[in-house]
Queue: 2 jobs
Job 1
Amino acid sequence: MVLMTMIARVSDGLPLAASVQDDQQIGRSVLEYQNQAKMLFRKLNAQSPPQMTIETGQYLFHYLIDSHVCYLILCDKSFSKRLAFSYLEDLQNEFKNQYGSRVHTVSRPYSFIEFDNYIQKAKKSIMDARARRNLTQLNTELQDVQKIMVQNIDDVLQRGLAISELDNKASNLSLLSQKYKKDARYLNIRATYAKAAAAGVIVFVFVLYFWIL
């Protein structure tokens, strides 16, 4: 279940729109998660990963950044990751169409709070049984969500670790992995050539020996 949806401007973390599920499941702690979301918005920048999943207690934050706007949701850990990012992409497309040209002109929080009407429709659609049956079709339109980085909210907020640094570390690990694969392939080729050369020398000596005799 999607419990909270928030949209904010990346440059300064200004909230642009929001919708909170009226559910006893999160109750009074909803303010805590809203504050976490606002703190997260303030840590985002142009170098932040375009998509990320962040663990916070028994829930997950999923976010998507596009055109300097961050779309973020809070949901249960059991909620499908693919459906979560499909929902975020739906919001991103509609919000961009309606308000894309005005995002950088507003200065007060929640200037586009009326977007909650569309958020409610999108949420109902994604939770509809037919949407679940069409999950296979959705999968073909989404990138591989398994590659989306997962972090803990404490690492991102309390330890002050910039999200862009997390992205850099992931990139560095990927580059190192590729380098090791290339080195291993090169060493395997050299070993093969060495074995072939040794076999050639043995055959040459053997032939030369019997030729002389």
Note: Strands lie at 2-9, 15-20, 51-56, 59-66, 69-76, 149-152.
Job 2
Amino acid sequence: MMQICDSYSQKYSLFNAMNRFIGAVNNMDQTVMVPSLLRDVPLLLEELDAAGAVCPQRDAALPPADPGPFFSRRDMYSHYVLLKSIRNDIEWGVVQPPAGEEAAAAARKKDKLGGGPAEEGEAEEDLEKQFHYHLSGLHSVLSKLTRKANVLTNRYKQEIGFSSWGQ
């Protein structure tokens, strides 16, 4: 696995967060040789908590027939597919709707929010604040997804009996 040397000033760089996430998912993808083995294997929420991905909605997210409070709804396979899908979206981009549909959706959103000309000026003044808010959120989500990919990789190694692999 390729190691990226982060200085303290680059630790919170979005570019580095994306590289760490993509590296973790690539490592997961190379480690998981038989993804079908992940089906019906629950990913323990306590494992994610131990890795730093705290889940405050733990009890609310559980289905009523779930056997215990430490299991997530999804199995490891669905987490695996989700992480690979997000990696592909980051690497290749998200498919954009045709230009006509995009304009119509923006107009509907504007009407829904009641955005008039006076509010547009206020929104433009707030662009920097919005940018920093979303940048911070994206960095946080990428960090949690990176931890999830690392937990899944380590759990897969445990499941197949290679807990000391690559260490």
Note: Helices lie at 14-31, 45-50, 58-61, 76-92, 99-113, 117-125, 127-160.
